[in-house]
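User: I've been going back and forth on whether these two constructs are worth ordering. Before I decide, could you fold them both?

Assistant: Sure. I'll take them in the order you sent them. The first construct and its structure tokens:
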Amino acid sequence: MARRFVIPWVLLLALLAVPVARAASRALIVVGLAGSSENEEDFNNLAAATKKLLITRGFPADGIVVMTDHATRDTILQALKPAQGDTANDEFWLVLYGHSGTSMGGVPAFQVSGPRLTAADLKTALDAIPNKEFVMIGTSNSGAFLPVLQSPRRMVVSATAGDAQTDQPRYPDKWVDAFTENPKALFAWIAARASALVDEEYQSDGLAQTESAQLADPVSGAILDPPFGQNMAAPAPAITPAVAQNDENLPSASDIDIQQTHQGSEWVHSAPTDETKRILAEAKAAPNPDDDAAVVLDQQMKFTVEEDRTTDEVVYHRVYIAHEEAVEDWANCELPQSPPQATTRLRIARVIKPDGSSISFDPSKLDRGAPNMTGDTPGSAMVYLPDVHAGSVVELGYQTRELLDASLPHVSEAIPVQMSVPVLKSELEVRVPVGQAYHVVLKNTSAQPAQSQEDDRAVSKWTLGPLAAAEPLPGDAPEQQWMVWLGISSLPSWNEFAAWYGRISNGSDIIDDSIKKTAADLSVGANTRMEKMQRAFEFVSALRYIAIELGVQGFRPRTPAEVLANRYGDCKDKANLLVAILRCMNVDARFVLIDRGGQTDVSFPSWQFNHAICFVGKAPEAGQPTDLWLDSTDSITPFGFIAPGDYGRQAFVFFKEGAAFRQVAGTGVDISAIHDEWDLAQDAHGIWNGTFQRHTTGLADYATRADFRSLSPGQRRQQIYEQLSDLWPGGDLSGATISDVSDLRHNVVIRAKASNGARFLPRPDFPWLNVFCTPERDRPLLLNDGQQCAGTQTVRLHYAAGPPAKLPPSVAITAAGQTLRISWTKADAHTIERTAEISFPKATIPAADYAAVHRGVEDWTAALMRGEL
């Protein structure tokens, strides 16, 4: 990213007033081999900034040589030759940015194109220059140069100490910052101030410091540690300026961002300009047919992957705030900031107010954020845009650089392109190294990329027209199936993924005696394979679930013995334990990765999993006629049923011969159902008194357990009364009970006593019908997580005298394969029954069928109301 410096008016005036240094002073700034395009850009920016600061210091522009384009040992040594007129009173500065290592014989060397530039080469060249010399070696391993370059007329600062500090140092960046604070300060003060800034940053980031600068002092002949003999509490000692020669060495206005506010302010307020007025006019004229609260006028995303798989993402949004309700979503921005893993640089944060004036955030004030210490969420830095109202335009642009996670040695990105509000224009660009296996896809759109090759990068570019707002609705399929998203992955294939996962999980499936004994104990008294499996499943389900996914443990399961000893684990730990126990029972169980609640795109090899379960293939000869998908994570999924978020997903199963995808399917009998029974008797006053009872199965049973398991007895009674009062308003309820929700062997049963003098009957309560409230739908409807569902409500009425002579007619409605019925029967001389039923065997309803099913539900509901006695 381009590096710019904000210089307040007072400093600009100082620059204009201070004479420059002697015209004979010279400098050489060299950028060596960078290792990646990101590093090369950073080093080039540092070199450019250093030149400007030397000019500010008083060096003549033509006396500063910057070598950034594949410098070689020979070209550098040529530039280091003495110049005509050099004297001992003049200064010569040498600044190196890049990487250092060790050449043959253990000699420290600066890495350049071709043969390396050794410390001995530099010493010979510098010894020939008669000037006072100042050298800054901004590389790793740079401390090894100091003993070689020491001289009574040469001051040398290195970014690191010795030759064991091999990480890319932060010191060069801070050296430029310190130089910027006071371009007239002594070299030693700049070096000491830079070291202090490095210390502050490591402390702020909460990281162990891996670098420590050193300085070779020409006076004492010693190699000093910070602060290099400088009194940092005192004002910075400055150089003695000479008489100015001309004005051509001063920074031009184009080199300076002038801050028109008090020094230290985060915000810059600007008057209306032609540019801001034009942007506002275009924003107000932008189409917004649905009157969304905001409209994204322009969206730009550029994603670059380096050879070392470091990623660089540039994001820019220009958004029109149409209504006040959108302010909170767009005026507060959380940026990833967890150095060194993820570092974000703010490029622009600006509010253009309705009158055309603007408020811009000073990017240099962005909080450095906090390191990720928990392992679950990254650190972040916040930008809060002030004075944003309806009619404003918000502009936000930032660049995030992220190092490759060592625990997942591949790039794997899924970036949403569609947003919660309309996007009028999108420009997307992805750059990946040529010659490496990369998958770059744009999903759920027919747009095709323009493809090219630039600077050893394969480049894909898309320009998209208007994108509708991505508005998730109840009953939607996973977003991966219908939202526009951009995928980038360096995984060559699913086989490669399986091999990688096999390597990191190697040894995690070891079965010791504790697991064998547990399996044997659970098998005692079990007569069938299915009974053994159920006992193992319920045992593991009952263990505590705790998310403890730090580092490689985010991918590698703990050993079964460790999970058993702890009596807790996360999803993959519990799945691994269940697999181990079942294998000890001679059941061929398999470990499975799955995207619970989402959907894995099997055509896009990448990390798309968030969950782990167990798979047992069918064994009809052993009494298991169908495959079993066993999710033991949350302790409330009954044995044999599919947990919510798993059904219909593509599951990655690890078999003996390799891994393969299988689609999670039910057993054919695992229907989610609600069975309600009201048994009511009428007294002499016409008051109905009786009982209510509810049985649940499948996901309905799961939902009931989830609703009630953490409640106290009093809270459970209150919950039951609330639900029943909706079914039969105006009734008096008492005696509410619920069966043991932790007992997975038996379905949950709710009971209560009821009394009501109303003439209308209790209403059916089938939650799947609630999604049919809208008259039309433009996407498929997924009922009950894709699993078939049914409901039955039986109301049995015992009359004190005789029942009505005429009963309402029965109703049978079939719509797109779904069935809704109402039947009336006379059980005896005093009793009639009404049975209301729904059966949805097709849990996924295409958009084309939605209207028919919606009409069927409406007709069924109307028939219930007409049939009141």
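The second construct, handled the same way:
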Amino acid sequence: MYAYETPARSEQEREELILEHLRQVHFIAARIHEKLPPSVELDDLISAGIVGLLAAVDNYDASKNASLKTYAEYKIRGAILDSIRGLDGIPTHKRKRVKLVQEAMRAAERKLQRTPGEEEIAAELNISLAEYQQWVVELQAVSLGSLEVVEDGEEMSLLKFIGDDEQETPERILERSELERVVAEGMKKMPENERLVLSLYYKEELNLREIAAVMELHITRISQLRAQGILRLRSYLERKWPAGRGGY
């Protein structure tokens, strides 16, 4: 049994601890990989998990009243999640446009001290409303980034990866609850029509055509509202939910 309470370890002890918990990395990576698109390589997840394991071994503090195994699982899972947050399926040129739109949203919100409308966002970008709406249509495959990955247009929620049904820890339950709270806050701040589209799409699991029928709008408009709502939520999450979450 190792004296985890002792901050300083010999290099040999460190290596032994890493080897002892390496199987944990493979297990967690494999469980997450099962739920991801086939384009994601298991080896990449394992590599990210090893980074988390190294951080766990080097920073473990027994005074936190958690075992190294529990702490390592938390750090491994966090490192793997961080590694897949960028897999949002957005080409480089569209990613730049996403950034421009989000920056315009934030700038307009600061000036107006309220949630800006489409016309106001377009004005901030110095483009016409019609051109802005075309941008949004082209960005309709955009994902929530820290909440989803996209493969062939299909979103897969990362919320289910924050917690594990078999091994819930207080830290993970708290993180998931906090993330859900932040998402709910972001939803409340967006215009009602965008909030309704996202609610029908993600909570009620209606497709865009069904939502168009419910709201009596053209499916293209529904696509715009969905993409714009996601862009607003991405912007909000970037401010309220940093990518570095998952620390001890």
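Notes on the second construct follow. The chain has two domains: 11-84, 92-240. The first helix runs from residue 11 to 33.
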